[in-house]
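Ligand: S-adenosyl-L-homocysteine. Inputs:
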Amino acid sequence: MEFQKNDIVTVEIEDIGNDGEGIGRIDGYALFVKDAVIGDIVEARITKVKKNYGYARLEKVITPSSFRVEPRCAFHRQCGGCQIQAMAYERQLEFKQDKIRNNLIRIGGFVPEHVDAVMEQIIGMENPWHYRNKAQFPVGYDKSNNLITGFYAGRTHDIIHNTDCALGAHENKQILETVLSYMRENSIPAYRETSGEGLVRHILIRTGFASGEIMVCLVINGKKLPAQEELVRKLTEISFSGSAMGIDFGERPTGIDSDGRRIVSISVNINTERNNVIMGKETRTLWGKDYIEDSIRILESVDSSTNVTGEVKFRISPLSFYQVNPGQTERLYSLALEYAGLTGNETVWDLYCGIGTISLFLAKSAKQVYGVEIVPQAIEDAKENARVNGITNAEFYVGKAEEVLPDKYKKEGLYADVIVVDPPRKGCDDKCLETILAMQPARIVYVSCDSATLARDLKVLADGGYEVKRVRGVDQFGGTVHVECVCQLVRKGIDSSIAGNAEKRRINYREEEIPDCGCIYG
Ligand code: SAH
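Predicted complex:
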């Protein structure tokens, strides 16, 4: 059958694409229909025709899928944030479990039987709403030149006005409206991307869900914010009690019960570059602290949040990375700790350590931890976090993992029993993987926010002598197609149950040079 653009077709959705879109087939011709849910029968308008597949826009749901639910957000189709908000949460989890599995098979080259034997059940959230502790809202104008803030419409830089995102903290709405009213009253212009003029680019809000501390940071295209004392006055006068906001805080994510949230830090970040990067390098505090504090509990078992074995406190600066879903982060880190299998005698490296979150979790059960991170401010936070928690067996280095690790290994002969990596979406650099293989830790724990690059890197580690033993998804991002995943690899042919044996193995391996070329891969 030949299709043309703008044809209207009726199609049953049988599958889900990587970006959450529905996939249906007409006489074998695959159609990708954004916003259609697996099991729907829909009417769709064809928007793009390729040889073997095409794209279509959802026009009408004729027969809704049993997995279709009423979306909470009126903007979910326009906004780029929640691709699968109309899909029942249980089905979202199944989709994510399959996504990890398929990537391990297709990209990692692992056989399905192996993957099925090592994959554990994904850990979902009890309440997949209002879970995010951080958001960066672009500020701009609508078509009638009204000042607005909200989210970019999918794949564009058009702003949709929405101060009430269903994934963000409830308090964001009041903060955003207060900033907009301050801007209107003081004639402060929003930044215009097209001309590079105007001042306020983004509003960053970060909330410590356990501590209740909130940070507000305005990203500005200039050195100074006019009438800044007005902004401070307005923000510090906000009351966040549930009744003042007309909200029943029964909606807080499970395990997090902090009423009495309050703003403790107000700052500006200077970004005068004409690019897509949100934050500039320089931040100035206008009022309060330069950071917020928060804490994450250490769980005895990831399958129950009742047995808490400890807690780690964190200080978080505007530019530092911090996991966005604190309710699930305690499970993610507790799982990483379990996979690390520490007994107290181990030397552990935590690569891509951010503010030292995982490092400090590990330090409580290890002999020595070394963290490596590229953002200097994050390393400052990490050092301070170690001090605040009374942890003396963690050391931190600023730099690229792929440079610091080879350097420390080659020059100083540092070794590792366990290496933990938690890289950004692009995964680990080749040089970093090469060095890990040369160092021969007993175990590697790979924490990943992109199962495609995870699978690519696991293949390298598996070819280099490691066996993938355990894999488990942890859903940090309900409503979206993203999923976090933790993986345990064990070096083949050594008794990994012997703790602290790196020192012994080092005698055998420290003379070994790290190849500068890719010859470790053959
Ligand atoms: N483990 C931390 C941070 C994970 S996010 C946590 O859970 O909080 C990934 C981190 O890697 C970010 O802090 C980012 O700044 C850092 N990063 C990115 N590229 C890097 C590189 N090449 N070497 C070291 N760190 C890097």
